[in-house]
Amino acid sequence: MLRSDDDFTDDEELQTPLDAINPYVLLADTLARLSVQRPEAHAQLLAHVAQDPHGAQAALQALLQHAEQQRQADLQKALVQQPA
Predict the structure, then answer these.
(1) What is the pLDDT of residues 38-64, one digit of tens each?
(2) 3-class DSSP state for residue 39?
């Protein structure tokens, strides 16, 4: 039996453990750990990013700023949800 597109709906209430992970914060934290655990690899990565003629350095900086904003928003949300 063939199914129509109407048979498939998005379940907006469906949540997975991955929903709790903020990808921007995860990337920022990963880069920070890399700078501590493998500073030579971190420096090499940043050197490649700096040489990219397509604006990768500005994009990375914007991503890291966005990650920090998301981190602050997540902290605020957690504070509001805490019982008094």
Answers:
(1) 999 999 999 999 999 999 999 999 999
(2) helix
